[in-house]
């Protein structure tokens, strides 16, 4: 029986995702890249150089303070999910420093494979998962066993998106500095819980 165009497209997509999965990093390897770029970046023209130290500090803080929520683990188990988690990120990203470590720790503790693909190593992946036309990160790809994409989350929890909407609605009344500060305070207090809850709900 001949496959339909849609079936052929699905096969191509799954093969593409599997290829990116094979190139992706473990969370430990992702941290090693962050450390290297901060201390001795091989790319001397990296436009994000000034953000690596802060990103690394925030990532390490999330790693140290995050605690797995057993109720969320139970909720995930009830989903009977058997796939994988592939995140698209970069160590300099402020949103990623709050979300990537927590999501990685949670799904790893729950017994799932988690990998991180560096967005700027190949834009071919992020270009399939744009946010309003932009390559916003982090993105969390919920993958089925066959590498088909079950759902996609990101780049921020709903509260973060609400803060962004408030900022864009009136940048004078709610300036950029206040938006960034409120967002980071929220991330520090929430410790990835909202992001994980939203991801579980999408499975």
Structure write-up:
This protein is an alpha+beta fold and 203 residues long. The protein is built from nine helices and four strands, in the order ααααβαβαββααα. The protein has helices at 5-23, 27-40, 52-65, 70-77, 94-109, 123-126, 158-169, 176-190, 193-202, and strands at residues 84-89, 114-118, 139-143, 149-153. The protein has a four-stranded mixed β-sheet with strand order 2-1-3-4, with helices on both faces. A hairpin with a 5-residue loop joins β3 (139-143) and β4 (149-153).
Key features of this structure:
single chain, 203 residues, alpha+beta, 4-stranded mixed sheet, 9 helices, 4 strands, 10% strand, globular
Annotate the secondary structure layout.
Blueprint lengths: L4 H19 L3 H14 L11 H14 L4 H8 L6 E6 L4 H16 L4 E5 L4 H4 L12 E5 L5 E5 L4 H12 L6 H15 L2 H10 L1
Parallel strand pairs: 1-2
Antiparallel strand pairs: 1-3, 3-4
Helix pairs in contact: 2-3, 3-5, 7-8
Class by SSE composition: alpha+beta
The biggest sheet, with number of strands, parallel, antiparallel or mixed sense and barrel status, is: 4 strands, mixed
Number of strands: 4
Which residue ranges are poorly predicted, with pLDDT under 50 across at least 5 consecutive positions? 1-12
Question: What is the molecular shape?
Answer: globular
The quaternary organization reads as: single chain
Q: How large is the share of residues in beta strands? A: 5-15%
Number of helices: 9
Instruction: Give the strand order of the largest sheet, numbering strands 1, 2, ... along the chain.
Output: 2-1-3-4
Amount of helix: 55-70%
Order of helices and strands: HHHHEHEHEEHHH
| Cα radius of gyration in angstroms | 17 Å
What is the overall pLDDT average?
92
């Amino acid at each position: 029986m001949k496959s339909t165009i849609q079936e052929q497209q699905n096969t191509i997509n799954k093969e593409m995702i599997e290829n990116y999965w094979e190139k992706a990093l473990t969370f430990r390897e992702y941290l090693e890249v962050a450390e290297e770029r901060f201390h001795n970046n091989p790319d001397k023209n990296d436009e994000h150089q000034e953000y690596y130290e802060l990103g690394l500090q925030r990532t390490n803080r999330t790693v140290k303070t995050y605690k797995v929520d057993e109720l969320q683990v139970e909720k995930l188990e009830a989903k009977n999910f058997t796939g994988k988690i592939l995140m698209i990120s970069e160590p300099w990203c402020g949103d990623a420093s709050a979300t990537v470590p927590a999501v990685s720790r949670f799904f790893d503790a729950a017994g799932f494979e988690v990998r991180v693909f560096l967005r700027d190593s190949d834009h071919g992946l992020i270009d399939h998962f744009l946010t309003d036309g932009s390559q916003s990160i982090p993105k969390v790809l919920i993958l089925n066993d066959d590498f088909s994409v079950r759902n996609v989350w990101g780049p921020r929890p709903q509260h973060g998106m609400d803060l962004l909407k408030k900022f864009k609605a009136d940048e004078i009344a709610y300036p950029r500095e206040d938006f960034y500060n409120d967002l980071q305070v929220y991330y520090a207090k929430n410790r990835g819980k909202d992001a994980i809850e939203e991801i579980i709900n999408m499975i």
